[in-house]
Specification:
Order of helices and strands: EHHHHHHHHHHHEHEHHHEHH
Shape: globular
Largest sheet: 2 strands, parallel
Helix content: 55-70%
Number of strands: 4
Number of helices: 17
């Protein structure tokens, strides 16, 4: 499963006959997970975790105000980029109701963290991420593998035109440089989505986003000279984008793609398209539990500290059923993702135009 591939786009009659039996496979795993108590809320864990991130954010803001017009602010920018990464993970957990079981507090927390603190639309991201979870790595259904600047399959590469066609030839080499723009890209996409009918609270979200950027740029250009302020933005937003990409890219990039017509039950669809990342406590903290991507996709509302135990149960269960279960180290996961990006760009390089 480490090699990038596209799952075939048809299913045999025998496969269709097995669907009813396969449907019970996830039910059995769910029973084992529930009996282990892994879906219980962990209020103490999230109180401590969010408290630490809040204190770190306050410390970064305090350092920014204390340093004044100094080039040392670039160190603060790098520090705040890491904190913004942790805030993004907090917004993610709130969106999946890992923190609160009820919708209202989850949504209120998500709006506060995503829109006000990060400058990213919670409603837009929630809609996009929900569709990703329903059909990971499915061409045409997963927005995370829709052809935009990058292409994710050779089928997409052959159809690419303009800038995606040019970038697609060298996208493996350009991937990390492009990630430096990801934070700003998410903010831009959120503003752009405010006019969509799918947005439930466009006025509220628009107000929160405007407040975020007025305070953000206002503080920078008040405390710093224009050159230092622009340098701060470049370091902060650039490292924030790389941080996001380093957390989310290893999860699915380079794993099998699903074509239209391929029949997979829920368990296999989630396991076959996801990759876990090993690495211990440091990776757990850096990736906020998303290194257990397989278990997160199977049980999206499972609190982060329960994912490690769920991983053991899930891997053993997949072994019982003969379902390939893929996990690797962080650097290896990036190598697999970059290898996939290079592979799918091959038709563009072969075309030579």
């Amino acid at each position: 499963m480490a090699n990038p591939m596209v799952l075939p786009g048809n299913s045999s009659t025998r496969e269709e006959q097995r669907e009813q039996q396969r449907g019970s496979d996830f039910s059995e795993l769910s029973r084992r997970i529930t009996e282990a108590g892994l879906l219980r809320r962990r209020p103490l864990y999230y109180t401590v975790r969010f408290g630490v991130v809040t204190l770190a954010l306050a410390g970064g803001i305090g350092a920014f105000l204390a340093l004044g017009a100094s080039w040392s602010q670039l160190v603060v920018a790098a520090f705040l980029a890491m904190i913004f990464g942790q805030l993004a993970l907090a917004a993610h957990d709130l969106a999946h109701r890992q923190v609160f079981s009820r919708r209202r507090p989850s949504e209120a927390g998500g709006l506060l963290v995503a829109d006000l603190l990060l400058g990213m639309s919670y409603g837009w991201w929630m809609n996009k991420h929900t569709r990703h979870h329903a059909n990971p790595n499915h061409e045409g259904k997963d927005p995370d593998v829709s052809p935009d600047i990058l292409v994710w399959s050779q089928r997409q590469a052959r159809k690419a035109k303009g800038l995606p066609r040019f970038i697609g030839k060298h996208q493996a080499m350009l991937f990390f440089p492009l990630l430096t723009l990801e934070g700003l890209n998410l903010s831009f996409a959120g503003f752009k989505a405010l006019g969509n009918a799918s947005m439930k609270r466009p006025v509220l979200e628009g107000t929160l986003l405007v407040v975020h950027f007025v305070v953000y740029f206002g503080a920078l250009f008040t405390v710093l000279s224009p050159a230092k302020a622009l340098a701060f933005v470049a370091v902060h937003q650039g490292l924030f984008g790389i941080c996001l990409g380093s957390v989310f890219a290893p999860n699915h990039k380079g794993m099998p793609m699903i074509e239209e017509g391929m029949q997979l039950d829920f368990l296999r669809r989630q396991v076959l398209t996801s990759r876990n990342v090993r690495g211990g406590v440091l990776i757990d903290v850096f990736m906020g539990g998303l290194n257990y991507q397989i278990e997160h996709h199977l049980f999206p509302s499972m609190p982060t500290p329960a994912l490690g135990r769920a991983q053991v149960i899930t891997e053993r269960y997949c072994a019982e059923l003969g379902i390939p279960y893929h996990q690797t180290g962080l650097l290896a996961s990036h190598r697999e993702a970059l290898r996939h990006l290079r592979s799918v760009g091959e038709p563009l390089r072969d075309a030579g135009d």
